[in-house]
Amino acid sequence: MFWPSPQDARREYELMLQHVSVVVGNLADVAVAVGTPDLQEAPWRLLDRGVELALVKKGAQGVLVATRDSMRTVAPQRVEVGCGLGAGDAFGGAVVHGLLSGWDPVRIPEYGNPAGAIVCRAARLRGCHADHRRARCDGRRTVGQAVNAGLLLQPPNPTAGTMLPKGAR
After folding, report:
1. Does 1 reside within a domain?
2. Which CATH number goes with the domain that contains 110?
3. How far apart are the first and last CA of the chain?
4. How far apart are CA 117 and CA 119, in angstroms?
5. N or C: which end of the chain has fewer CB within 10 A?
């Protein structure tokens, strides 16, 4: 977390949520933003703040798609994970693509989940894995070294959640 406490982070999220229509985050991100990890309550708290679409990533349990009209969980894409670095970036890219293409909200994670899975699978094929403290590739390279060696396309995104400005879709 980039703030000294969850309460400090929540204050910042409150300011940001006034300016976004789409929120993407994992359950921990959403819990900090709205003050509860309850999957029945948390999406409604986002929607009550003016968010039009909330995508709550639940890991192996899929992605919760929440709009004023419905809430539905999209099943995960099962994959043996060698290293998850970049999977969230692939998912985020799929979200942006879906939003710009005007897709139905449920179709977005149906496309994004496989995009993230492809990255996980590709990392495994390249011999990448995550150790306890940092990602390593080929048993020797750190993430930064792997990026420089061309084994990974980009370093991991330092932010856990993605928020798009209102009107960006």
Report:
1. no
2. 3.40.1190.20
3. 28
4. 5
5. N
